[in-house]
Each structure stands twice: as C-alpha cells, then as structure tokens.
Amino acid sequence: MRYSGLATPISRPDKAVVCSQKDVCALLIEGDPVKDLPIQPGQQSVPVYDCHVLISGPDQDGLLSGVVSNLPEIKATASNERDLLRKITDDFKARVMKYASENQEIPWQANQKPEPGQQQRWIPVHL
Questions:
Q1: What is the domain count for the chain?
Q2: Residue range 9-42, pLDDT digits in tens
Q3: How many Å apart are CA 87 and CA 63, to the nearest integer?
C-alpha cells in the first residue's frame, strides 16, 4: 500500500504502521499473518503476443482503418483510434485463442513498414 502523508497517526494499540522507505508504509494488524504474493517458481508465465497495427485515415467518411501487419487477416474500422485499437485487440485475442484451442499454427507474417500517411502502434497482448 502507498500512503503519502498520513494526516492522522494511528492510535489503536492493535495496529502499527511499518515504513520501509520514506513514502511506502504498510498497515499491520496484530495477529494477522503476513501474506506473500502467490507466485511460485515453475509457474507458467502468461503468453504475450506482439500485435503490430498499421493505421490509415481518416477516409472521406471520417473513419480510421487498421490492419495487424503481422496477422493481416485482422482488420477493423472505427471513428477514433481508441475504438479501432480496442476492436483490433479483441479480434486479435479471439483469433490467437482459436488457433491455440484448435492446435493450429498461427500464420504470422513479417511486420510491414508503414506506408506514407500510415501510423504504427505496437500493442503487447496478454491472453
């Protein structure tokens, strides 16, 4: 827990504030066991995939277009970048999970360079 400037000191005898650094303090209640994070050696890590998006537009209707350059079957359009990237990451997750559940190899492509007028975004995607 992070507390910056406690306004009122704790006066109950069953509680104590323990500070290990200037502004990082933990509130301990007497008798409560200290709990560690449930991370143990040998646990599998969460898969992270590189989603490289090329963004074009807006077009005459005001829409942005995006394509995943390393998995070009994934495309989307939206009126703003936030919605576009949300649509693309949702589709990216769904397709990668589908490939994995069907034990199919993901048909990765080499990352494409943006063409003139395009922007690129790199999105790490956790499944």
A1: 1
A2: 444 444 444 444 444 444 444 455 555 545 556 6
A3: 13
